[in-house]
Amino acid sequence: MPGSAENPTPDESAVDSGPRDGGAPPIDWDALAGPLRLRLAELAAGALDEMRPSDVPAQLRPVCRFAPAKRAKLGQPALLAALRDSGVFRTAVVDWCRKHRPAALALDDSDPIVVAAAAVLLGSRIAPHYVELIGFRTEQGQLRAERDSATARAERLTADIARLRHELAEARQAADRVGDENSAEADRLRKRLREQGMRLKEAKDAAQHSHSELERVRAERAEAIEEITAERDRERMRAQEERRRAERASSEVEVARQSAREARQGDEVRLALLLETLEGAVGGLRRELGASGSGPRPADVVQRVRAHSGATGEVPDVAALDRLLALPAVHLIVDGYNVTKTGYPELPLSDQRDRLAHQLAALAARTGAEVTVVFDGADVLAVPTTGPRGVRVLFSEPGVQADDVIRDLVSAEPKGRQVVVATSDRAVATSVRRRGAYAVSSAMLLARLNRV
After folding, report:
1. Which among 97, 103, 107, 123 has a CA at the least distance from the CA of 29?
2. d(Cα 447, Cα 223) in Å, to the nearest integer?
3. 48: which DSSP letter?
4. Which residues lie closer than 8 Å to 317 by C-beta, 6 or more apart?
């Protein structure tokens, strides 16, 4: 009852409206009773969901990964330590209680545990008194439980003593009756005792024989296990040797591939030099003959043609895109997020990247085109080191847009090579057309991918 010794009514002047009273007596957090510790941990765990990640103390961040129903139990030490050490966290818990559970801060509640928890959170001067009261009640409850257990145990022992005394009296009576029996009955009992002794000796001999047989079986099993282990080790050694041979063969194949690539690169360099020589010779011959070829072409002077209708880089439909992808050595450059957010924006970004990369891998396998997909790398914490076969997956550096990387890729291509850029960004499409590339919309590329 309020005002009694069991649940005293707090003095209004002793209660502080703030989360912490600078003049409040210190609280021994290590001496908090179990029910009070659980109450404080439950309130602190409830406040974690509405706190910003940056405001959560570092020691409670592992607790946030627990299920909400298990935080108070599994993270109780960390939650109480944060309430004790962090005034910011304690204030956040008080604000959460005022918003969601105002009754938890009631200092006039009939439950002393509720009042004690509220006093501790608010830093009230009555908090040490209630902490001591809860500890006293908890200790008294434990003592009562131990007393009841000891009383029940004493009653059981008393009943056992009475039962044993009764059995002892019956045994004495039986012994007295046996002592009064005639000698014939005694002889019969002695004979039965001798027979039982003989049977016991036979049983011991049989047990000794069984023990010897068991030891023999164990020895045979140990030998079999040793043989199996040795055979397993030999198989493991053979497997390791085969693995080393395979690795050596793989290294030799890689060396051969590298040699072939170097030889192919040398041939390409020689071919490029030959082409440059031929181009120089043709240019010199044109200069010598005065045929510069800089004048208008016949198709440029045709009348009644709309302005800019001869501009290159437009891809009108999927059929035209198929014809471009069928060209030898064509390079398809894809504006990654521009395409994925057109086709399947509801997926997470990582799933969007995986889906587009696998679709492009299927397209590359069918057409033989070189495929490069570019994503903004600003929001990517860990860049994948591998991708689907046949697709080059690039991420822009922090502070660099994927659009600029796409322009650099187009500019890096040699003149005369067919380059197709898939994007719906008008600025990117215009800039790559100026560099001699074809531009297709993201919707057209998705229509082509859905046919693969």
Report:
1. 123
2. 69
3. G
4. 444
